[in-house]
Amino acid sequence: MTGPKNLQPTPVASAKTWLNWHTSALAWMIGVSAISSYLLLINLLLLFKIKKLPVCDSEDSLRILEECQSKLKVRSKVSVVDYETVVETGPIISLRDPAWT
Known about the structure:
Blueprint: H1 11-18, H2 21-51, H3 59-72, E1 91-92, E2 99-100
Antiparallel strand pairs: 1-2
């Protein structure tokens, strides 16, 4: 008879048991969900900031808007936000931090 065998799994064997297609797919799905949630949250915050701004009531701007809507055949309601009263430049939308500059 031989002596007792080492029943401890090797590090490579234990890594193979948990690193498979199911855990890789789960990690991918968690990453995609986290990034999608982050983008949705940031865009909603930007939307709420824009909704608080006053609507432009300049006749020239509204006339140009109506002309563009008719040329492009846009049927939905579009409004021009008067952001010059709040900031000097437009919004910069980015993946990391949409901000007003």
